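Let's study a protein:

___
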Amino acid sequence: MLRTQFEEELDKLHNQFYVMGTEALSQFKKSLRSFVTHDRDLANEVIANDEKINEYEVKLEKKSLEIIALQQPVSHDLRTVITVLKASSDIERMGDHAVSMAHATISTKGEKRLPEVEKEIAKMGAAVKVMIEEALNAYIHADETKAREIAASDDNIDVYFREIQSLTVEEIKKNPDAIVTGKDYFQVIMYLERIGDYARNICEWVVYLKTGKIIEL
């Protein structure tokens, strides 16, 4: 394969990963909105579309392994393929957690709700959304500096997680009937926290792409 053809193959891989990422972001936004607005129809749409992200991951994995086997890339080219291979796994997990949030939307329907807690969950979700968007932008532009900044913002997600946990406990004490819903709140903030972790992982792969060093941010 000529060098120009090989570079085209890498560009396709790069762009397909970004498409997968934007699909997962769309799924996440729908899932978050379904939970905040108690929209079961939207939650079911998220669940129904889960296979699309899984299919993206399988295609990317197959293409990445094919390039490694047939082209035996080295240096930066190999890092590009490994970055896609590894980061697509993080994206797939984001999609899984978005689906889990959608299931939580369905299970809380008709249960006693805690508006103050849901308001904070919406804020946490908005912060996670920004993290995902910026991590994908850092990837598409191979921006190591931005990736490091975004990864550092994961600390804010952890703060939301702890504060919402405490708030939920306090609100359940005032509203014992909301204990079932409280369980779902704990699960949703756990999903949000993990999605933030996966966005941070993507940032770590951006650093690897640029430097060849595998680090924890």
User: Anything to note?
Assistant: The mean pLDDT is 92. Residues 3-37 form the longest helix (35 residues).
